[in-house]
Structures are given as structure tokens and as C-alpha cells.
Amino acid sequence: NAGVTQTPKFRVLKTGQSMTLLCAQDMNHEYMYWYRQDPGMGLRLIHYSVGEGTTAKGEVPDGYNVSRLKKQNFLLGLESAAPSQTSVYFCASSYSRLAGELFFGEGSRLTVL
Amino acid sequence: GEDVEQSLFLSVREGDSSVINCTYTDSSSTYLYWYKQEPGAGLQLLTYIFSNMDMKQDQRLTVLLNKKDKHLSLRIADTQTGDSAIYFCAESENTGTASKLTFGTGTRLQVTL
Description:
The complex is a heterodimer of chains A (113) and B (113). Chain A has 113 residues and is mostly beta strands. Chain A is built from no helices and eleven strands. Chain B contains no helices and eleven strands.
């Protein structure tokens, strides 16, 4: 019973490097989200997807790109990492447009030097 | 935009009641949520309340909603050490395509013996 799985769980990057965070869910959920969590700021929505092949911008999308080629996967990309992107990233999914019950992954801690 | 505010820290003794407070700004929110984040883990939905309710009780948890003041609280009765975590309140913004949650900054609950 995996739920939402994020890989990798930890990563250290140098400024300017690129990387992709992978989120996989096995619950057949339509909606998927990427959040970042920073101290004293709660969770902020980066991008989200309402179904396979769709993506939309959230509150803090700059510097990130996403893709949802398969329903079960939602990828978050950093093309040129910056120290301001040091954060803990959480992927979440939900089964309904109106459902506030988000199922979260365990998080991916990213450090950009 | 929506803004959800919480105090950052609360310390209580084991067996006492804990009250975590939250204020929100979006009066059109249909549901308001409480999520719990244990160390090193993602967020888990704890409980929620529909906006036309004043109170909801679920075992040791009581949620109170004051719509006039846009104030939400979570009371945990007989607080245990296992309740130590970060608690986030969240309000939902139902757009045409997705239900997006705006999270507060989180309140870290410390339970002492």
C-alpha cells in the first residue's frame, strides 16, 4: 500500500544544475500537486495537474516546470537551480476536484549550494 | 489572495487539552481542514469542517468555527506525547478546475511529561 511515493528523498545541487523530482501515486487519483515547505511559511503550491496531459501554475511557479505524461506520475523539474529553491518539496494527490483530502508523499529535501 | 495565519508554537503538558488557533481570510471557503505533520513525514488529514457548521467533534478532537471572525480552532483533549507534531489549518479555494488548498504556517505542538 504505497500511496504517494517521491524520489529522491534527499539531493544536493550546485547553483545552475538541473534535476527532476518524481512523484508516483497508485490510487488512480486525477489531481496531483507539488508544494514546497519553508520554515515559517507553511506550504505553497508550485504547480498542479487536473489530469493526464494537463498542468497549471500555482502560487510560486517561477523556476519550475512540470509534466504529467502518465496519470500516475507527476514530475517537477528545476532547469537551473538557485539557492532560493532550497526547500522540502511535497507531492500530493486527490481523487476529486472538490476533495480537500490530499494524500501526501514523505517529501524530498533539496539543498542548492 | 487567501491568507491563513497560525501561531508557530504551543507547549502543553501530557493529559492537558491543547487548543490550536487559525484565522483565515477567504469567506467563500466551503471546507476548512486540519492536517498533521509528524517529523520526517508528509501531511495527513486530521479532520475537516463544512463552512455551515459551528462545531465538529471526532473522538479527542473538537473543531470550532467562527465564520463571523473567520476563526478556526482545533482542541485536542487529553493530549498525549504522540500528538507532538506540526498542525496546519487550510482553506479550500474551489476554482473551475481544481480544489486548491491554502495552508497556514503550521503550529508546532510540543507535549511535555
